[in-house]
Specification:
Length: 434
């Protein structure tokens, strides 16, 4: 930790993984002897760069750009780009570190990386977003490529931003290299189901967990935080599987709709109008209400899907959820539960699906997008959806089997960390000390 001062989220992510690895290194000392643990914590490459751009008033703005190419043992670096004012190196490193194990769990040939900027897209015009994306890509393009590093979206980066960045990459390189970015538009190399994949996958994972106890998503009362890409499609899939989705939120407050969130209205507000979640209650009427500030975890429900951001569900929220009898928690976001909240769920025997397993559907479908790009094909919705479903069930089963094998039955967090680690560690040993 002394080597990476001030990077609290990165420390948290590393300690969560290493805690789970104790029984692995005891059984397989070769991982320590080959320096795998030390090497894993040090990114292969970290790029930090200036992103200058001109706003609508003609003022020059300067942001900081990051790309952390963490581990390429299994394939080209793969992971999203986040545009949010809270971004600094510690956030990008925590996300990149998590991505190594998540990508390994998908069974796809992809390494781990992450990037982004402290740029705040809130309130910016389309023109400003485009100029920022173009400036960001003007530097980033030197470091990425379909066989090197393949970025995608994350918080603040959706289809619009990927489009502007792809356009600039093409202009700079004079190549239509579809496989350099994922999350592209459907008419120029994007994959069906990519938009839905993370949210859908998180709900499929929750459903698999519930089935181990003779239940399913059908009939559950679901609490969702966030109202972005992951939250919207988690709500859509949960409702399709027969659950009632009670909540959604943004950084200003949350909505409760006892009649079930109207997903079409949510999409209209967030994807088309880019409005705040407070508007939902006004437009929906009926029993829907908006609560400024506060926490969705105060609402009573049986399944919790945190889909907003890191550390949004703390120890107190976990205690409230447990008191209310929550049966399953699946992390749609990356590390949304604090370490102590996660411990409480596991200790209480609540089904707890960690992000690196539960939200892996997005990157898995990105890998399917790369496959389609490589063979210049485009697959149908049903086919891609079925592949996503199979991948999520496989990840679930791998977590269960690995947790059992290493003496922690039912502990999905341990299962995910150990299964993700072993595959990467073995590949690193095979490839020598690099
Ligand atoms: P979006 O930008 O589409 O949505 C983010 C949502 O979270 C918004 O509702 C936003 O509210 C809220 N939010 C963001 N930051 C904060 C904060 N500091 N406090 C409270 N609320 C906040 O992002 P995504 O839906 O794509 O990503 C959500 C999470 O899922 C992230 O953790 C991301 O890393 C993870 N993830 C995403 C994947 C994907 O495919 N998109 C894949 C795997 C994981 P507001 O508008 O007020 O900021």
């Amino acid at each position: 930790f002394a080597r990476n001062p001030g990077e609290a989220e990165f420390h948290q992510a590393v300690s969560e993984v290493f805690e789970a690895l104790d029984p692995v290194v005891e059984r397989h000392p070769q991982y320590v002897e080959a320096g795998v643990l030390h090497r894993l914590c040090e990114p292969e490459r970290q790029i930090i760069f200036r992103v200058p751009w001109v706003d609508d008033q003609g003022t020059v703005q300067v942001n900081r750009g990051f790309r952390v190419e963490f581990n390429s043992a299994l394939g080209p670096y793969k992971g999203g780009l986040r545009f949010h004012p809270s971004v600094y190196l510690g956030i990008i490193k925590f996300l990149g570190f998590e991505q190594i194990f998540k990508n390994s769990l998908t069974g796809m040939p992809i390494g781990g990386g992450k990037g982004g900027s402290d740029f705040d897209p809130a309130g910016r015009s389309d023109g400003e977003i485009m100029r920022f994306c173009q400036s960001f890509m003007t530097e980033l393009h030197r470091h990425i490529g379909e066989h090197t590093d393949v970025p995608a979206g994350d918080i603040g980066v959706g289809g619009r931003e990927i489009g502007y960045m792809f356009g600039q990459y093409k202009r700079l390189t004079n190549r239509f290299e579809a496989g350099v970015l994922t999350g592209k538009g459907l008419t120029w190399g994007g994959s069906l189901v990519r938009t839905e994949a993370t949210g859908y996958g998180a709900v499929m994972f929750a459903d698999s967990m519930l089935r181990t106890r003779g239940e399913s998503m059908d009939g559950q009362q679901v609490l969702i935080s966030g109202s972005g890409n992951v939250a919207i499609y988690a709500a859509e899939k949960a409702a399709a599987l027969g659950a009632t989705v009670l909540t959604a939120s943004d950084s200003a407050g949350y909505i409760v709709d006892p009649d079930g969130i109207d997903v079409d209205l949510l999409k209209q507000l967030k994807e088309v109008e880019r409005a705040r979640i407070s508007e939902y209650a006004e437009r929906k009427g009926g029993r829907a209400r908006y609560v400024a500030g506060g926490s969705v975890w105060d609402v009573e429900g049986t399944v919790a899907l945190p889909c907003a951001t890191q550390n949004e569900l703390d120890e107190n929220a976990a205690k409230t959820l447990l008191k209310q009898g929550v049966k399953a928690v699946a992390e749609g976001a990356n590390m949304p539960c604090t370490e102590s909240a996660a411990h409480l769920f596991v200790a209480a025997g609540t089904l707890f699906g960690p992000g690196k397993a539960a939200n892996a559907g997005g990157v898995a479908t990105s890998a399917l997008e790369m496959q389609q790009n490589a063979v210049r094909d485009s697959w149908g919705f049903e086919y891609t959806h079925d592949r996503l479903e199979q991948i999520m069930r496989d990840i679930h089963d791998r977590c269960v089997e690995t947790a059992e094998e290493y003496g922690t039955p039912g502990n999905y967090a341990a299962g995910a960390n150990i299964a993700g680690f072993i595959k990467v560690a073995d590949a690193m040993i095979s490839q020598g000390v690099v």
